[in-house]
Specification:
Helix content is about 30%, strand content about 25%. It is elongated, with a radius of gyration of 20 Å. It has about 170 residues and is of the alpha+beta class. The protein is built from 6 helices and 6 strands; from the N terminus they run αβαααβββαββα. The chain has one domain. A hairpin with a 6-residue loop joins β5 and β6. Strands 1, 2, 3, 4, 5 and 6 form a 6-stranded antiparallel β-sheet that branches.
Length: about 170
């Protein structure tokens, strides 16, 4: 179960996702600039034909309306990058493929782009790392806690485990 009790956890996605960067503040700022006229819609509605095609064939539909044209729902496209991916680097992948890739490769970067297939609005939503390197084996976790250095107060240091609690 997930920490919120809402259902089963996806091992590959939940336990290995790390170093998350959210671009929602930049998005809001850009939309304010668009509303004020400092930025034109031609500057923000510039999705390439490749990006629109990736949204059509590999994208994940959302319930969110396009903030520019307000006619169509946005689509999220997940791009993967990493040295270990070789020729697969830079490809758009379905979200359902990411947990399998995370168990296959040690580390790769995921970029999530929102796209309006109607007007061409596109913006980076978030980026994060996935991969096996984010999984800590139970024996390694016990060793890390037991081998922690003493703190200034003379006790053992406390470790935060980023691989998701509650297991």
């Amino acid at each position: 179960m997930s920490p919120t009790g809402s259902g089963p956890r996806t091992l590959g996605r939940m336990r290995t996702q790390r170093q998350i960067v959210d671009y929602s503040l930049r998005r809001r700022s850009l939309l304010r600039e668009l509303d004020s006229g400092r930025v034109g819609s031609h500057e923000v509605c510039d999705a390439s034909p490749y990006l629109k095609s990736a949204a059509k064939f590999h994208g994940e539909p959302t319930e969110d309306r396009c903030p520019v044209c307000r006619r169509e729902n946005l689509t999220h496209v997940h791009y993967i990058y990493g040295d270990e991916l070789k020729q697969s680097a830079g490809q758009a992948r379905r979200k359902a493929e990411l947990p399998v890739l995370a168990m296959t490769f040690s580390e790769f970067q995921v970029y999530v782009v929102e796209v309006c297939r109607g007007c061409g609005w596109n913006h980076l939503v978030e980026q994060y790392l996935l991969g096996r390197d984010g999984i800590e084996a139970p024996a390694e976790a016990a060793d890390a806690v037991g081998a922690s250095a003493p703190t200034r107060a003379g006790g053992r240091g406390r470790h935060r485990h980023l691989s998701g609690g509650g297991e």
